[in-house]
Fold:
Amino acid sequence: MPHAIVVHEVGGPEKLSWEAASLPAPGPGEVRIRHTAIGLNFIDVYHRIGLYKVPLPTGIGQEGAGVVEAVGEGVTSIAKGDRVVYTGLMGAYAEERNAPADRLVKLPPEVTDTTAASVFLKGLTAEFLLRRTYPIRPGHTVLLHAAAGGVGSLLTPWAKALGATVIGTVSTREKAALAKAQGCDHAIVLTEENFVARVKEITSGRGVDVVYDSVGKDTLAGSLDSLVARGTLVSFGQSSGSPAPIELASIGGMRSLFITRPSLFAYIGTRAELDQSAAALFDVLKKGTVPTPKPRTFPLKDAAEAHRALESRATTGSVVLVP
Structure:
């Protein structure tokens, strides 16, 4: 019998329970996937602690790659033996699962299962942030928080390839060196420097065109202060907690700032959007525009340990759970 991680009540990593899970045959429109690699993302933490509420008990995890083991009635787009990847389907922390065929994307031969699981959700996020939320053009200057993290490690080289100057913030000097190696033009260590003052210094007082902020509470006010007039704050996460409410008047006047709170799943809501976003991601991976990540791995049954490492910011880049 396959095993899975189940959450019965919200709380700390210790609430992740490793349990045997019965699995019926795939129903109409479904396939059974044997996972070979499972992506760990901060949204998993949000579900575990109850920040993003889901009915309990629940499986957890939204990203996985593996091999199709069985096909349900009416499925023609996917065949047994296909290598596939997906995101946005709760319950990825499992050795095996059933999933709707129309939410799966076939993997090209050049992309391994481990790479796919480590990069798919983060890579689709990078794609919609850089190409559709605030389309980056040559000459733009970008401020990117958590530049050495999973999404940041993809955003940096992709933004550079689109012609941007990238200013990244990180928590340690070691992560600053990593961010620079990934292409950041400037790396700011938050524990040593005031990032707003440093951004103004780097940009000769102008500010940046766009801030990509996944940190939230600790950085959002400063992110707004780092923008050029009519600049855009893209708030797409809150790893440090929910930021304080913003007074609309404070972003008006001569600043006239834009703020958006985009969600990946609003940008891949149709099959066409999912296919286009995935194709763009696979293209930059195959070309080497975005380097193939080398994720840190944990056994699936040790998901709690992986969550602790992620929340303590002891990880860089991507983390993958291996069944």
In short: The chain has two domains: 3-119+283-322, 138-261. The longest helix spans residues 113-133. The chain has nine helices and 16 strands.
